[in-house]
Design goal:
InterPro entries: G6P_Isomerase, G6P_Isomerase_C, Phosphoglucose_isomerase_CS, SIS_dom_sf, SIS_PGI_1, SIS_PGI_2. By secondary structure, this protein is of the alpha/beta class. The chain contains 26 helices and 14 strands. It binds 6-O-phosphono-alpha-D-glucopyranose. 6-O-phosphono-alpha-D-glucopyranose binds next to loops.
Length: 644
């Protein structure tokens, strides 16, 4: 496949990707990396730059954060305001020297060359021989940077699909494209898992309460079906009118077992309501998949016009800005609002490639991530958005980062002897404060990303309150980082009159690092910025650690074993003796199969029922037909007995 760049433009709209205030930090673009060969490089931990940081970490271990954060000059230095975003990293356990040494490490690891290679479409995902071009998904049509993959201009490809999506989604929203029985398509069900689900759901949750989003989505519902658990199907279909439902199958490969079973289930659901006619599928099912899955999409019964392609050079966890996110979001919120997400992501792409280290938000966050993990040995990290609409951001970051940097070898195939790949988790504030913050304050130390907004999507002031509810939320955003950094000493507790016996239980050691990101408002544009910011943070860490952050071989083994288990389960349910690879798995399988068989002797397995909960179908304004339980599809009736 491999790609070259046509035109020779810079990765973003401004002339040089290597702008740096400190000329000694500027990396020559001639220092290009050859991704067609597996390099034989020493581990980064053997470099003098790494060793200098290890030495420096010993000094930092002696310093308490509360002594660092009282230094006015340092606090001034350790914040950035760019594109409306403020990053304050003064509560990280870093000094000017730390940042200089990290810059040296970044330079030694050719960070900027690697970034540029990514933007230009070099095959940096070399184990799969693929380019990594999610930045091209938000390129301007007339971008001077024209990566070419498989002979195709990537930016032209992207814009041709975006136009197809705009036309299709506008026509659906205007009622020109309808369902099989002529009804408007107002219920959208997006079927997908992993990267084909988490990012789009995160965007949906943000836009749901965004004022423009609220208006645009009036009369529409968007649901995500990801888990192969039949209960997820039940929940998804509950009270939906199939005649008004459009199913989007989002799967890059169009082979993922869970997605394809759910896709077949949803196809059957449509047929069971509207008749077993191929036109039901061609009018109610669309696909977002990679061009290499074209035949599979056709074989499913999906028409060409309803196929929105993306490309092998878009990784699943980096695919939100492709058709995977564009189709469901544009159907419900309109293409224009989705375009604003792309604008925000593009502005972050430009920021990332153009800005010098000390003004570069993703670069600073990535390098501090490396510092915390590999040198200060914090192997966890938490994302704490003080915005309920970001409730799915932690789950998205979890996949993005843990699938990207959860690796054990370098690009040269050498085992790493340093810590890489944090465990990422999170929850919106203030809810998180009432669940796991006890551990953050007194148990294990976990670096925190606090994310807050100057304005709420929709603020409230209750009569008699001096502050708005958003101000109230933000007081916590400001207070928690100080509590983590400063802690509380025994002497301070004594002064407050705390009894001596309680003091050990109420002492906070502090010295717990965090960073604070403050954005203007959770709009479509700013959510696009956040999305790209975290994608780039992950890339920075992988580049410095010398990993391939863009493959995911780690998910394959379990998938393969599940296929083997399926055969064993079929045999067990047919009354044959289960032969398993080890006694532990055999015991579990025997227990499962025997329990099922016993159950069935006394009680027939319960049949699933669509719309079981019997709520009013809001999208139909409470149509009585859907408030009742719809008929059970015939093929699913037999499902409980099929395995016998
Ligand atoms: O989009 P699909 O091909 O269905 O893949 C869905 C997901 O499953 C895979 O196992 C990977 O872990 C994810 O990176 C991917 O996003």
């Amino acid at each position: 496949m491999y790609s070259q760049v046509r035109g020779g433009g810079s990765p973003a709209s401004t002339p040089s990707p290597n702008v740096d205030t400190n000329p000694s930090r500027t990396i020559s673009l001639t220092n290009q990396i050859n991704y067609d060969e597996v390099p034989d490089l020493p581990l980064v931990s053997a470099t003098p730059e790494w060793k200098a940081l290890e030495e420096h970490a010993k000094e930092i271990q002696e310093t308490h954060l509360k002594d660092l954060i009282i230094n006015e000059e340092r606090c001034e230095e350790m914040h950035v305001v760019e594109d409306g975003i403020m990053l304050d990293y003064s509560r990280q356990r870093v000094t000017e020297k730390t940042l200089d040494l990290l810059a040296d490490l970044a330079e030694a690891q050719l960070l900027r060359s690697k970034m540029t290679s990514m933007y230009r479409g070099a095959p940096i995902n070399f184990t799969e021989k693929r380019a990594v071009l999610h930045t091209a998904l938000r390129s301007r049509k007339d971008s001077p940077l024209r990566p070419v993959v498989d002979g195709l201009d990537v930016v032209d490809e992207v814009h041709s699909v975006l136009e197809q999506i705009k036309t299709f989604t506008d026509r659906v929203r205007e009622g020109e494209i309808t369902g099989y029985t002529g009804k408007q398509l107002r219920n959208i069900v997006s079927v997908g898992i992993g990267g084909s689900y988490l990012g789009p759901e995160f965007l949906h949750e943000c836009l749901k309460t965004e004022p423009e989003g609220v208006n645009a989505a009036l009369g529409y519902t968007l649901r995500f079906l990801s888990n192969v658990d039949p209960v997820d199907v039940e929940r998804t279909c509950s009270e939906l009118d199939p005649e008004e439902t459009l199913i989007i199958i989002v799967s890059k490969t169009f082979t993922t077992a869970e997605t394809m079973l759910n896709a077949r289930t949803m196809r059957q659901w449509l047929w069971d309501f509207m008749g077993n006619d191929p036109e039901v599928v061609s009018k109610h099912v669309v696909a977002c998949a990679s061009t290499s899955a074209t035949d599979k999409v056709k074989n499913f019964g999906i028409s060409d016009d309803y196929f929105f392609r993306f490309w092998d050079w878009v990784g699943g966890r980096y695919s939100v800005c492709s058709a995977a996110g564009a189709v469901p979001i544009s159907l419900v919120y309109g293409f224009d609002l989705f375009s604003k997400v792309l604008d925000g992501a593009r502005s972050m792409d430009e920021h990332f490639i153009q800005k010098p280290l000390r003004s570069n938000i993703p670069m600073l966050m990535g390098l501090i991530g490396v510092w915390n993990m590999s040198f200060l040995k914090y192997n966890m990290r938490t994302t704490l958005p003080y915005a309920e609409a970001l409730l799915k951001l932690p789950a998205h970051i979890q996949q993005l980062d843990m699938e990207s940097n959860g690796k054990h070898v370098t690009r040269s195939g050498k085992e790493v002897d340093y810590l890489v790949g944090e465990v990422d988790f999170g929850e919106p504030g203030t809810n998180g404060q009432h669940s796991f913050f006890q551990l953050l304050h007194m148990g294990q130390a976990v670096p925190c990303d606090f994310i807050g907004f100057v304005k709420s999507q929709n603020d409230l002031v209750v009569d008699g309150e001096t502050l708005s509810s958003h101000d109230e939320l933000m007081t916590n955003f400001f207070a928690q980082p100080d509590a983590l950094a400063n802690g509380k000493t025994a002497d301070e507790l004594r002064e407050e009159g705390v009894p001596e016996w309680q003091i050990p239980h109420r002492t906070f050691h502090g010295n717990r690092p965090s960073m604070s990101l403050l954005l203007p408002k959770l709009t479509a544009f700013h959510v696009g910025q956040l999305l790209a910011l975290y994608e780039h943070r992950t890339a920075v860490q992988g580049f410095v650690w010398d990993l391939n952050s863009f493959d995911q071989w780690g998910v394959e083994l379990g998938k393969k074993l599940a296929v083997d288990i399926k055969e064993k389960l079929v045999e067990g349910r047919a009354g044959k003796t289960i032969v398993a690879d080890n006694p532990s798995t055999k015991r579990l399988l025997d227990y499962y199969v025997n329990s099922l068989n016993e159950d069935e002797e006394t009680e027939k397995r319960k049949e699933p029922e669509w719309g079981k909960n019997g709520h009013t179908n809001t999208s139909r304004g409470g149509d009585a037909r859907f408030a009742r339980q719809p008929p059970l599809p015939h093929n699913l009736r037999d499902r409980g007995t099929k395995l016998k």
